[in-house]
Amino acid sequence: MSVENKTLLDEDQIASALQSLTGWRREGITLVREWRFQKFTQLMPFLRGVLDTMDRANHHSDLVVDSRTKTLTISVTTHSAGALTQADVDFARAVNAL
């Protein structure tokens, strides 16, 4: 388990991070990305990778799985800080690398 970097990000740092976080968008104090799969069975291995990433990073995001639309939505923020932190950006980058 790694130690989270809970350094608060300012507006410029968030904007800069989003430029390199393909598919992610900002919604207030949250980073959000949605994945759509052709088959539900394709979603499940990816979800397992996300869960493993959450455990390794010790950073737990909110996940919404819609089996009807075969969609996974991930929302990440540092709840204890009430803001976006470097841990959120690191997590988004790790998920994008899956």
Descriptors for this entry?
98 residues, 4 strands
Describe this structure in words.
- The chain has helices at residues 11-19, 40-57, 86-96; strands at residues 25-27, 30-36, 62-66, 71-76.
- The chain has 98 residues and is α+β, with helices and mostly antiparallel strands.
- It has a four-stranded antiparallel beta sheet, with helices on one face.
- α2 packs antiparallel against α3.
- It is globular.
- The two termini are 18 Å apart.
- The mean pLDDT is 94.
Figure out the total of helices: 3
Low-pLDDT stretches are: none
Topology, number of strands: 4
Main sheet characteristics: 4 strands, antiparallel
Name the strands of the widest sheet in spatial order. 1-2-4-3
Distance between the termini: 18 Å
Average pLDDT level: 94
| H/E element sequence | HEEHEEH
Instruction: Please state the overall shape, judged from the principal axes of the Cα atoms.
Output: globular
The proportion of residues forming helix, as a percent range, comes to: 25-40%
Structural class label = alpha+beta
Q: Which radius of gyration do the C-alpha atoms yield?
A: 13 Å
Q: What percentage of amino acids are in beta strands? A: 15-25%
